[in-house]
Design brief:
This protein is of the alpha/beta class and 376 residues long. The chain has 14 helices and 17 strands.
Length: 376
């Protein structure tokens, strides 16, 4: 059952597995690691374990820690090479810190470093799922970060908000808690006079996206409110609740659950595991632009037929993930293509009865079958 109130984050029956994402600015201040704050958060994680909950931590901070030790400007984010070097140094310190503090509470830390490809590739995604499941069954606390020391700009998540949502999908978590430097989603930039905190959201809509600010108050992280809304969309497709809350306070989880300060995104639906993975993909191989008739048919649960395609963009092979878009650029769905891009270009606009003559072989009936398609 999906969470309906923030207090349920602290209830084992309603939230048996919680993913907690910690932003860079929470871990690292101007004077270095905020150790006292982190010790309080670890105490909260230990308390969750004590009441029967399991916790996965998605922790930023490696680049910030490494940049400080190497003396790099711009927090180590001046360019990709600096970020990779800073991460290589900082990740040792970050993992050691988590291991030390969790051990002091009788908990075992496990480190996982992931790249985008690890969760975009179906086989590697399932391997990550198996590893997380085994670690949790053994009572460990997985501490996960993006593998910034080897990731490139083309394959990076770019922020840990969406990584946390993808990890929650893989682990089949109950909820994701994004601890950041704001209380939650506001109806406008929270710096503006009269800005109001939105406490509950039933599905991320274009109107909700319009409220987002891309800025991070700290300037240390790489994500803003936009990335958090994208994380909420990934989570909601898997039937996972997501909460944005302020982590700058002492014992931030307690503040969220006891004072109900934050924004709760309640999922509207729950797709099957494969469709949730497909819908949450961040990198696609191409786009199929469709007309209004095809868009309406997709909304009614139909497969995508070539007749409704008006343009093909990108180069992809059969089985590759592609976006299905309206003429105005809106992403309508993700799906696995039954044809490679050149074949799609030859077939677009034609009825199924013409396909055999166009391709020279007996074709499949749909460009994307409805069983391999998930609406956005």
């Amino acid at each position: 059952m999906a969470l309906s109130r923030l207090s349920q984050l602290a209830e084992a029956a309603d939230c048996p597995l919680l993913v907690v994402k910690v932003g860079s600015s929470l871990l690292v201040g101007r004077e270095g690691v905020r150790r006292d704050w982190l010790e309080g958060l670890v105490a909260e994680i230990a308390a969750a374990h004590g009441r029967g909950q399991r916790v996965i931590v998605v922790s930023s901070g490696a680049i910030a820690l490494g940049a400080a030790r190497l003396g790099l400007d711009k927090g180590g984010r001046g360019n990709l090479a600096d970020a990779q070097a800073a991460a290589a140094v900082g990740q040792i310190a970050l993992s050691g810190l988590w291991a030390e503090l969790l051990a002091a509470r009788g908990l075992t830390a496990a480190q996982l470093l992931l790249t985008l490809d690890d969760l975009e590739d179906r086989r590697r995604y399932l391997n990550a799922t198996a590893t997380l499941t085994r670690l949790l069954d053994a009572g460990a606390v997985p501490v996960i970060n993006e593998n910034d020391s080897v990731a490139t700009q083309e394959i990076r998540f770019g922020d840990n908000d969406r990584l946390a949502a993808r990890v929650a999908q893989a682990a089949q978590a109950s909820a994701v808690l994004l601890l950041s430097d704001v209380d939650g989603l506001y109806d406008r930039n929270p710096r503006e006079a009269g800005a109001q905190l939105i406490r509950e959201v039933d599905g991320v809509t274009p109107e909700i996206h319009a409220m987002a600010s891309r800025e991070s108050a700290s300037g240390m992280g790489s994500g803003g409110m936009t990335s958090k809304l994208q994380a909420a969309e990934i989570a909601e497709l898997a039937g996972i609740a997501l909460v944005i809350a302020n982590g700058t306070h002492e014992r931030p989880i307690t503040r969220v659950t006891q004072q109900s300060i934050g924004t709760l995104f309640r999922p509207r639906r729950k797709a099957g595991a494969r469709k949730a993975w497909l819908g949450g993909r961040l990198r696609l191989k191409g786009e199929l632009i469709v007309d209004a008739g095809a868009a309406d048919a997709l909304a009614r649960g139909s497969s995508l037929l070539a007749k409704g395609i008006v343009a093909v963009e990108g180069i992809f092979e059969r089985g590759d993930p592609v976006a299905i878009c309206a003429a105005d650029g809106r992403v309508l769905a993700h799906g696995l293509a039954e044809y490679e891009s050149g074949e799609c270009a030859r077939l677009m606009g034609h009825h199924s009865s013409e396909h055999a003559e166009l391709l020279g072989y007996a074709p499949r009936p749909a460009v994307i079958h409805r069983d391999q398609l998930v609406l956005k």
